[in-house]
Write a structure and sequence with these properties.
two-stranded antiparallel sheet; alpha+beta; 9 strands; 23% helix; 7-stranded mixed beta sheet; 4 helices
Length: 178
Amino acid sequence: MESIIYKDEACELTEDFIDIGYMAENFEATNFYNKSVEVKRSHPDKSMSILISFPKVTNDFVKEILTIDKLLSALEVPVHCYLIFDKETEERAALKNRLEKLQLIYDTEDEYGSMYGTKIVSGSLKDKLTKALFLISKDGSIFYLDMPNNLEEPLDLERLRIELNKAYVTYTGVGCHG
C-alpha cells in the first residue's frame, strides 16, 4: 500500500493503482449541478484529458488549483480538464465560480478513487482523494502521472507542460495495454 504525508501525518492509499502506459478507466461522477457524468478515457475528437484531484479546499490548495487552471486555460489544443473531489462541500462549490478551464466533478460513486489509486484509506483524510494529476493521451492511455508523496508539495507544472507537448505530438493511435 502506498502512503502519503499531509502535515506530518502518514495516510495510506487504496491498494489498486493505475500507472503510466496502462489504459485509463472510464468512470461515473457527479457534476456541480448534481447530474451524473461519465468521464471517458478517450474522445471522438482525439483530444487529451487531464484528471486532477485534491483532498480538500485549503488556501494553499486553492492557490495551486487556480495556477493549474490558468495554465490549462492557455492551452491551444483541445483538452478535457477535470478537478475531482470526493464529494461536494460549500467551499468546493464556491471554487467553481473561479475556474475557467477545469470542470468541477465529484467522485460520488467512488470509482475514480478506487480505480486510479487516489483514495485515502487511513488517517485524518480517510475517504478523501489524494493530490494527483493524470494526463491521458489521445488514445486513452495514461501518459503522465504526478502524485506527490507529500501533499504540501506542489504538482510539477513545468513537467506537465513538457508532457503535454510530448503527448500531443507522439500519438500512436493505440495504447499499449488497451
